[in-house]
From TrEMBL:
This is Prepilin type IV endopeptidase peptidase domain-containing protein. Keywords: Cell inner membrane, Cell membrane, Hydrolase, Membrane, Methyltransferase, Multifunctional enzyme, Protease, S-adenosyl-L-methionine, Transferase, Transmembrane, Transmembrane helix. It comes from marine sediment metagenome. The chain crosses the membrane at residues 12-34, 132-149, 158-176, 182-203, 215-248, 260-283. Residues 135-244 form the Prepilin type IV endopeptidase peptidase domain.
Length: 289
């Protein structure tokens, strides 16, 4: 009880604790981002391939916890002391302790990003149930962002529970009322579904994946239908700027798809933290207030 009282009475302590928790969660998210797509691919193959067509590596257990994390170059098992978020990377000089192969900078960056965003959420919401939900949403959006960047995939195993979790929180009107949450989930899915089929009808091409529909439906379930126009506009603007920049400065091929999920996730997180201000500004522009 004294510890809970300390969390309630000391915002600095609470924010610091949540930031450290975010660093630890970020380390776990690195595992999920790498392993979940492989697990999904193995499940798909298992449904269609005979065991005789699979390699011993594909048959061996592979989950979020098994096998232990190893260096991809020398297969050195990562010890606990080598797995301290950010600090281990700096202490090791960004290299494997055994073979000295370079460790990807993305691992500490994801850990630091998760810690930073978690701290901002704690600062914004304080010691409250809304903070718990906001942290779960933040961590899910980070995971979805990097999986989509790597594989152009938004797993149902994350987007669908995220949708239902938003509705559960809003049973108690944590972020919006229940009716707005349900309508937001429906409208979020249908809006991009209509865009998808309209674009396909006109061009004969698929402009986005079904995972994008489900992610926007989840964001609608969390924030309600009034927030959807702002999320769509913000994600589209950021996606357009980044896409054009990639084409101009990195000679990105125009026919190579750019995942839309990261921009939806970024817009959703901005709506989480500054949603009320965004909604008021949007309604002011439209003359509704």
């Amino acid at each position: 009880m004294a510890f809970i009282a300390l969390l309630q009475s000391s915002p600095f302590f609470f924010i610091s604790l949540v930031s450290i928790l975010g660093l630890l969660v970020g380390s776990f998210l690195n595992v999920v981002i790498y392993r979940l797509p492989i697990m999904m691919e193995r499940d798909w193959k298992a449904q269609y391939d005979d065991l005789t067509n699979r390699t011993p590596e594909e048959i061996a257990p592979f989950t979020l916890s098994v096998p232990r994390s190893r260096c991809p170059h020398c297969h050195h098992a990562i010890t606990a002391i080598e797995n301290i978020p950010v600090m281990s990377y700096l202490f090791l000089g960004g290299k494997c302790r055994k073979c000295k192969a370079a460790i990807s900078k993305r691992y500490p960056l994801i850990e630091a990003l998760t810690g930073l965003l978690s701290g901002i959420v704690a600062w914004q919401f304080g010691f409250d149930w809304a903070c718990l939900g906001a942290l779960l949403l933040t961590w899910s959006l980070i995971t979805l962002t990097f999986i989509d960047i790597d594989h152009h995939l938004l797993p149902d195993s994350i987007t669908l529970p995220l949708l239902w979790l938003g509705i559960v929180f809003n049973l108690f009107a944590v972020y919006t009322d229940l009716s707005s949450s349900v309508v937001g989930a429906i409208a979020g899915y249908l809006s991009l579904w209509l865009v998808f089929h309209g674009f396909k009808l006109v061009t004969g091409k698929e402009g986005m994946g079904y995972g994008d529909f489900k992610l926007l439906a989840a964001l609608g379930a969390w924030f309600g239908w009034l927030m959807l126009p702002s999320i769509i506009l913000l994600s589209s603007l950021v996606g357009a700027v980044v896409g054009i920049s990639l084409i101009i400065f990195r000679q990105h091929e125009r026919n190579v798809p750019i995942p839309f999920g990261p921009y939806l996730a970024a817009a959703g997180w901005i709506a989480l933290v500054w949603g009320d201000a965004i909604t008021y500004t949007y309604l002011s522009w439209t003359g509704a207030v």
